[in-house]
Each structure stands twice: as structure tokens, then as C-alpha cells.
Design brief:
Layout (H helix, E strand, L loop, with lengths): L4 H13 L2 H8 L3 H15 L4 E4 L2 E4 L1 H26 L6 E7 L1 H8 L3 H7 L3 E7 L13 E4 L8 E16 H7 L13 E4 L28 E3 L2 H9 L4 E5 H4 L5 E3 L8 E9 L6 H14 L5
């Protein structure tokens, strides 16, 4: 029995959205129309695909099996579309790029006008997420990741090494003075990552331990769950923070403190699936990144 692709397309949207209503908004269909299509699909298969709950929909075991196959089909169609576009060997079409909130907000986004001027046929769709987006499942085309990818099917290119140092706003230093040694950090307001956060940098809250006795870490005055939030807090004058050098380049009020101390570093990679190895869009975007990285202090 051949399954109706229109119904499978609606099934995919419902599974991703978690409700008939939200799927209908994506598909530009009414909630009742979406519900009828799912009911018809279930009837044709003689299988329930969703558990209906007051809070939304949950895939049944059979639904989980079906959605894996449907996602593969969707990913293959997206790959085919990319190849058709790139077959013209012209840089045009949509390129979905994902990276961390910090790098994307403060470094990458301000450079997108220049990229658009160079390649007006490419539409960049930027996905900012500190959690890794699944490239193999087609959730994005390329990624800038702050660690070495583990998936063997992904092509990777080392971009740069990101260095962290201590920074504070001039207004904070004018009010509280600048620390002269690591021990002086005991008397200062410190900004850190929230305890539950597990960013790529293993010792992300190193400033809380710098120069202290083991087990006697300092307590921050403020924590937040991403580096962009830490950047904004430090720029406001709240306290001293560990920040990547690239982030403070466009923040003239932030100055480095304890310049004799070297913070940790991490390597960033440009990553994309093998299916996009010959993509013209990927090629020109990668080359653009490399050209901008050469003139940036990371």
C-alpha cells in the first residue's frame, strides 16, 4: 500500500510541532483539517500514531518508527533541492547557518550586510543555539561549532582558536578599582555561568577558582546561562567576567583586567555534511568567514 505524501507531510509537521493547532499555523491549514488528515492516515495504516493528551500530542511507538523514515525523506528532498540549486554553479538560494548565541549575536551578524552585498543571491537563515543543531537530520546546512565534531560523516575545517580573558567596564573600575593580583578577585563582583550550564569550555568559570585554595571557589554576584548574557552584564558595569576576546572588540567600555593572566581557549570549526561538499553556497560562505577571521583578534 502506497502512503499519501500529503498526509505524511502533515504528519511530519504535527510530530515536529507537537499539536494540531501549531502544525496548522505552519501549514496554513485549519486545526480541524490537520486533525482529519492525521485521522485518515491512522485509519489507512490501522495504527495509532499519536497519544492525545490535554497538553498536546505524543508519538506512539509506531509513530516514532514512521517519523524516522519521514525525516529521512524530508532530509533527502532538502539535499536534492540544494544540489539542483548548486548545479547551476551560481551562489544562490538559502543557506541555513547555526552557531552559538555569543558568536552569532556579536561577531557574525554584524558581518552579514557585507556578505549580502557580495552575494545577493544567497539568503542566510541564522539559527542561534548554544546546543548543537543536528546537521545530519537537516536541521541546518552548516555550523560554526566551538568544539571538534564527533560525527564521522561531517566535514570539518578548523577556523580559529578563541581565547578568554578577564574584562570589566570602565565604569566598574572607576567605582571599585582594578584588581592587581588574582587574590584581589576575592573583593570584586564576579559574573559567571549558571551551574547547570555545560558549554564547550570545560573550565568556563575559571575566574571563580583563579588563585584560590582548592575547594574555596568564589561566589559570583550574578550568573546567566550564556556568554552573551555575561557580556551584557559586564558591559553594564556589574562586575568582572571571563569573555572571549572577539566579543569585546565592539564594546569600547570594556577593558582587560589582570592582563598577565591567560584564560582558557577553545577551537572553533566550520562543519557541514558530505552531501554539501560541492555546494557553491557553502564554499563562498566558508571563504568569506576565513577572510573575516584573518582580521579579527580571537
Amino acid at each position: 500500500m502506497a502512503m499519501d505524501w500529503d498526509k505524511l507531510r502533515i504528519f511530519h509537521a504535527v510530530a515536529e510541532a507537537g499539536s494540531f493547532t501549531h502544525a496548522g499555523e505552519v501549514l496554513k491549514l485549519s486545526q480541524s483539517a490537520v486533525s482529519r488528515q492525521i485521522g485518515a492516515l491512522e485509519q489507512s495504516l490501522s495504527l495509532p500514531l499519536f497519544h492525545r493528551h490535554a497538553r498536546g500530542l505524543v508519538l506512539t511507538e509506531q509513530g516514532e518508527i514512521l517519523i524516522r523514515s519521514v525525516r529521512d525523506v524530508v532530509a533527502n528532498l532538502a539535499e536534492t533541492e540544494s544540489r539542483l540549486v548548486d548545479s547551476k554553479r551560481t551562489a544562490q538560494g538559502t543557506l541555513r547557518v547555526t552557531t552559538t548565541d555569543g558568536l552569532g549575536s556579536t561577531w557574525l551578524t554584524p558581518r552579514m550586510k557585507e556578505f549580502h552585498d557580495l552575494y545577493p543571491g544567497i539568503r542566510i537563515s541564522l539559527i542561534l543555539d548554544d546546543q548543537e543543531v543536528d546537521l545530519a537530520m537537516g536541521e541546518a546546512d552548516v555550523a560554526i561549532r566551538m568544539n571538534r565534531p564527533r560525527q564521522p560523516e561531517l566535514i570539518q575545517r578548523h577556523l580559529m582558536t578563541v581565547h578568554f580573558h578577564l574584562y570589566a567596564a570602565k565604569s566598574y573600575i572607576e567605582e571599585n578599582g582594578a584588581p592587581a593580583t588574582e587574590d584581589d578577585l576575592d573583593g570584586h563582583s564576579l559574573i559567571a555561568f549558571a551551574d547547570a550550564v555545560r558549554p564547550p569550555l570545560a573550565d568556563v568559570n575559571w575566574l571563580l577558582d583563579a588563585g584560590t585554595t582548592p575547594g574555596k571557589a568564589r561566589r559570583p554576584v550574578f550568573t546567566v546561562n550564556n556568554v552573551y548574557g555575561i557580556f551584557r552584564a559586564a558591559d553594564s558595569g556589574l562586575g568582572i567576567a571571563s569573555l572571549p576576546d572577539y566579543m569585546v572588540a565592539a564594546a569600547p567600555d570594556l577593558v582587560r583586567v589582570l592582563p598577565q593572566i591567560e584564560g582558557p581557549s577553545l577551537d572553533a570549526y566550520f562543519v557541514y555534511p558530505d552531501a554539501l561538499r560541492h555546494s557553491k553556497r557553502v564554499e563562498v560562505f566558508r571563504n568569506f568567514l576565513l577572510s573575516k577571521i584573518q582580521v579579527t583578534k580571537f
